[in-house]
Amino acid sequence: MRTPAEVLDLRRQYLIARDYESFAELFAEDGVIELPFAVDGLPARLEGREAIRDFSLKTSDRPIEILDLQTVQLHQTADPEVVVLELVTKGRHTTTNQPFEAPCIQVFRIRNGQIKHFRDYVAAGKIPGLT
């Protein structure tokens, strides 16, 4: 079974490669993504692996390319399923070639090697084309 760190490393690889099918498979069937600071029509909550897959595939045509998800710090919690990730998303707007860096805090519940819950507190205002 994968550790939370291994799951997050795979997530990084899949998002950089724009492999949204594999990204969705990291989630439990009843997995949830929450985006408390959602902007530009992004949903505040996605429930279930299929909803996550559908949304991820639909947004793959956005002019945003993720170049790296740079971990600043991975914090273990008293609950072995919960980790807190300090992260900087580095990317570029593909139409303008404008680079960006968006800091965020992400909270994960990873059970049995699958993401059960993912809450993303991203500074979306730092991502061109999302504000």
Automatic annotation (TrEMBL):
Pfam families: SnoaL_2 (PF12680). Residues 17-117 form the SnoaL-like domain. Keywords: Isomerase. Signal peptide: none annotated. Gene3D superfamilies: 3.10.450.50. GO terms for molecular function: isomerase activity. InterPro entries: NTF2-like_dom_sf, SnoaL-like. The keyword Isomerase applies. This is Ketosteroid isomerase-like protein. It comes from Kribbella jejuensis.
